[in-house]
Amino acid sequence: MKITPFSANCGATVEDFQLASMTDDELANLRQAFTQHGLLFFRNQELSPEEHLHFARRFGSIVVNKFFKTTKEHPEIAEVRKEKTQQTNIGGGWHADHSYDDEPAMGSILVARVLPKTGGNTHFANLYAAYEALPSSMQERLAAMRAIHSNKHLYGENGLYRLTDLADQLGGMDRVGDATHPVVITHPESGRKALYVNPGHTVQFEDWGFDESRELLEELYAHVTQPEFTCSFNWLPGSVTFWDNRCSWHIADNDYQGQMRLMHRITLAGSALNAA
Ligand code: SIN
Description:
The protein contains six helices and 16 strands. The protein is of the alpha+beta class. Strand 2 (12-15), helix 1 and strand 3 form a beta-alpha-beta unit. Bound molecules: succinic acid. Residues 80, 90-91, 97, 108, 110, 122, 250, 252, 263, 265 line the site of succinic acid.
């Protein structure tokens, strides 16, 4: 198994390794790499849905997304599907999976199943690096703050996704909800500090007004999405990505209109997050 950084601040590539036949020693190395990089890329994997599930279960316990359709055979595998005829894609804005839950998802394992000829990249951002590069005055300002995360504006009645051609794919309108988390967390495994707000789900800061929250959130988002904290992954048949939602964001390009893209996603359960 060979692990090399993908870019200066963003992810690592794991080579000479098959997820489907991982040994216990390789699993231990992979855990270490996941804690260190928070984002792993794999190529040329032969991973059936059953092997995808098996790998996920060896790493942690699975938490099922409340809104996405799942595959018929496996209710733990969510489909990130865009049909040829659809205009809107799932995950087309920066976000961290399930931050609207009290115990947000630890990680997500995304497997390419059907890819467009070109396009459909996924971009990632490193929230450790972004936090560490903030001026110390901003770090101190954020230290005691908490933020409200929600999914109502996306999946609730008249939520953004409900108004698009993705609406038919989504269930669970009655499962919407909010959670409050520290704005700066100590990552439960690495012990590093990470900024924990994201454009998709963070609504506002606790005890702040909406407009003043938006102003600071937009400033933080502009900071995080600078090229030095982000990277872009081009999917090929056999590609798999595994990211840590506590220290990264992701966004899927929607630049392949008229073509289909289907990914299988398994999300791993996390725990309540502690302030730094
Ligand atoms: C997601 O947001 O989990 C999906 C990302 C992608 O489809 O690339």
